[in-house]
């Protein structure tokens, strides 16, 4: 498995993998396939070129099988914080430690960029994701009940935080 930063040149494969994930595991995402299926490729390219958005991809050979990103806040008072978003590993490649590899590398890259803390949100029903984040040093700091409306009913959202600084 090769983990590397994604670039503007990866826009087509990122978009394909994301749409595949939204169809394969809709319960794991805030967005739905319908929400993003018509996203122009130029928007994906712009995200990949944005210096405050850091995408990583996991490759099995030449195939993108997982991705993860952080988005650094733009306000000067929040530049020391970034939010982990868009975490996905194809079902065919789950349970092989890929999400952990992506997360470990994302933490490493965030530290190198001067980010002092990472935050993220996860559906309260997504126990495997919660276990991953907590095992990587993230702590729950809050919960929003009924945060996300899904076809089967409302789902709570947990908010997690990890300190990356030495103080």
The spatial strand order of the largest sheet comes to 1-2-3-4-5-7-6
CATH homologous superfamily descriptor: Gcn5-related N-acetyltransferase (GNAT)
Q: Pairing-aware structural class of the strands and helices?
A: alpha+beta
CATH architecture descriptor? 3-Layer(aba) Sandwich
CATH class: Alpha Beta
Explain what the structure shows.
There is one protein chain. The chain has helices at residues 11-24, 33-36, 41-49, 98-112, 127-135, and strands at 2-5, 53-60, 63-72, 81-89, 117-123, 139-150, 153-163. The chain has 167 residues and is an alpha+beta fold. It has a single domain, classed as Aminopeptidase. The chain is globular, with a radius of gyration of 15 Å.
SSE blueprint and pairings:
Layout: E1 2-5, H1 11-24, H2 33-36, H3 41-49, E2 53-60, E3 63-72, E4 81-89, H4 98-112, E5 117-123, H5 127-135, E6 139-150, E7 153-163
Parallel strand pairs: 4-5
Antiparallel strand pairs: 1-2, 2-3, 3-4, 5-7, 6-7
Helix pairs in contact: 1-3
Concise synopsis of the structure shown:
InterPro entries: Acyl_CoA_acyltransferase, Bact_Acetyltransf, GNAT_dom. The chain is an alpha+beta fold and 167 residues long.
Looking at this protein, list some descriptive labels.
single chain; 167 residues; alpha+beta; Aminopeptidase; 7-stranded mixed sheet; globular
């Amino acid at each position: 498995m090769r983990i590397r930063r994604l670039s503007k040149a990866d826009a087509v494969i990122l978009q394909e993998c994301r749409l595949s994930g939204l169809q394969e595991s809709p319960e794991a995402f805030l967005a739905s396939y319908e929400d993003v299926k018509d996203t122009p490729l130029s928007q994906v390219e712009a995200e990949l070129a944005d210096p405050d958005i850091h995408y990583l991809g996991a490759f099995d050979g030449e195939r993108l099988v997982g991705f993860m990103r952080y988005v650094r806040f733009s306000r000067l008072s929040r530049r020391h914080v970034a939010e982990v978003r868009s975490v996905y590993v194809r079902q065919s490649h789950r349970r092989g430690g890929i999400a952990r590899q992506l997360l470990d590398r994302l933490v490493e890259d965030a530290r190198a960029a001067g980010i002092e803390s990472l935050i993220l949100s996860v559906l309260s029903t997504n126990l495997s994701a919660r276990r991953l984040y907590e095992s990587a040093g993230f702590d729950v700091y809050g919960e929003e009940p009924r945060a996300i409306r899904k076809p089967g009913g409302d789902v709570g959202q947990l908010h997690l935080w990890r300190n990356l600084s030495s103080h």
